[in-house]
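User: Reviewer 2 asked us to show a designed sequence for the structure in our supplementary figure. I'm pasting the structure tokens here. Could you produce the per-position amino acids so we can include them in the response letter?
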């Protein structure tokens, strides 16, 4: 009887509410997987039954049928370890955030180079010492001139593309 008491105290009790929260989280992950593009969906590792259920849900348009299918996907996900699926989903969707972040950084550099001139150029040269300075100065001058004359930003676009090549190296 003493051994049974120790076993009961070592058990981790999970409340019914916690189980429901976990079930809803898995069903939400299933909904996110249904909404992924086909190329990104292919990158997520999962067993065939879950893949078939998600593929079936992707083709459904009726709300009632889709809701039942999503519940079924949630049920399938409760039977497996969803950690690798969540990790793969995060990996697939995070690269978009990284691309947007890099795009904003490039825009910021371009705008600083056009407005601040040599000061911003010095900062850029600290980060990228192997830059073609002459070409970069020419692009900055042209973009500044276009901006002052309210012309279309052709040189600003070229400057942006040049900065993009620096980040891609």
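Assistant: Here is a per-position design you can include in the supplement:
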């Amino acid at each position: 009887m003493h051994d049974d008491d120790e076993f009961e105290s070592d058990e981790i009790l999970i409340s019914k509410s916690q189980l429901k929260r976990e079930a809803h989280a898995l069903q939400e992950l299933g909904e996110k997987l249904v909404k992924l593009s086909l190329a990104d969906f292919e990158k997520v590792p999962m067993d065939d039954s879950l893949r078939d259920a998600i593929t079936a849900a992707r083709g459904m348009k009726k709300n009632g049928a889709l809701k039942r299918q999503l519940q079924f996907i949630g049920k399938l996900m409760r039977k497996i370890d969803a950690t690798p699926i969540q990790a793969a989903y995060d990996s697939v969707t995070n690269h978009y955030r990284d691309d947007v972040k890099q795009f904003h950084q490039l825009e910021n550099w371009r705008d600083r180079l056009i407005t601040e001139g040599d000061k911003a150029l010095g900062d850029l040269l600290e980060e990228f010492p192997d830059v073609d300075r002459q070409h970069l100065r020419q692009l900055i001058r042209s973009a500044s001139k276009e901006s002052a004359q309210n012309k279309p930003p052709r040189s600003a676009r070229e400057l942006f593309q040049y900065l993009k090549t620096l980040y891609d190296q």
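For the response letter, you might also mention the following. Residues 118 and 137 are 9 Å apart (CA to CA). The chain is about 80% helix and 0% strand.
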